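User: I'm putting together a small comparison set for a docking exercise, and I want a reference complex before I start. The sequence is below, and the ligand is magnesium ion. Could you produce the 3D structure with the ligand included, as structure tokens?
Assistant: Of course. I'll restate your input first, then give the structure tokens for the complex.
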Amino acid sequence: VKLREIGEFGFIDRIAAGAVPADPSRVLQGIGDDASVVRPSAGLLLVTTDLMVERVHFLRDSITMYQLGRKSVAISLSDIAAMGGVPHDLYVSIAVPEDLQVEELDELYRGMKEIAREAGVDLLGGDTTGSRQDLVINTTVTGSAAPDEVIYRHGARPGDRILVTGTLGDSAGGLRIVLESLRLPDEIAAPLLKAHCDPELYLREARLLAVSGRVHSGIDLSDGLASDLGHICRASNVGAVLESGRVPVSAELKRLCEIAGGDPLELALSGGEDYRLLVTVDPDAADALADEIRRATGRTPHAIGRIVEGEDIFLETPDGRLDPLRLRGYDHFKR
Ligand SMILES: [Mg+2]
């Protein structure tokens, strides 16, 4: 079925179906009026927005519509997590090319609604329009946090331990499988493709970190570890040392590189779209925080280095040698 057969209002009816706000005393009006009406929550309001453009951010034939729906919402939820916030509301605007079937849009929105439900977020509105060729998806997520809980990029201090919430480079490995049409055993390919098409979220970890009072700065890893740690360092006027032996790399990514070539560490440092959280924490609190998160979520944050004075980022080899990160050529991988 083509979109023009059901029309814009028929399409909006399909989106609205099943998008009933969980708490009517908080959300007085969702989809269906000129604007949503929401009772403000306590604390500070967080707002983030992301744009996903076909052929720039994704290829329609290398991700399912369901996964694309999940991922387009996940990247905004990840930004709220990076700020230490609780996510509340989702707005989705979409430009739909003529060749896209209504059934594909249903799958896209099924993915969006499912991840929204998992995160406790209500889909409250957006806009729909046509597009000549490419599918364009804009997601906006609001959230909140108490003033003393918000985790900014600035605030890192020399001596801080650097923690990341999961393995790095898996999404870049999944992208390689897609772009190079690699044939790999399913037990290797599946988790890497999942990391690329349907990244995990760290909303519970974010809240535990935020309320601990021991986190000095944070970011979610969208551009790659080296690049995103650079954002923290610039915003905080500090440098950093990454300990290469501690950068967590999955067994699947190692196997991919054994089979198809490449260096797992390089993918971990330069690969984008991991959507793990990176935080810098009081060194006295790092171990206890990591333990607390492991007990609460079953997922263990990894300590991968430390914040230092200065402005440069170094990679420390296991024998203690310091190499400047930007001389190693990772900038070549910048998007
Ligand atoms: Mg971000």
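The chain has ten helices and 14 strands. The longest helix spans residues 65-82.
User: Thanks, that's exactly what I needed.
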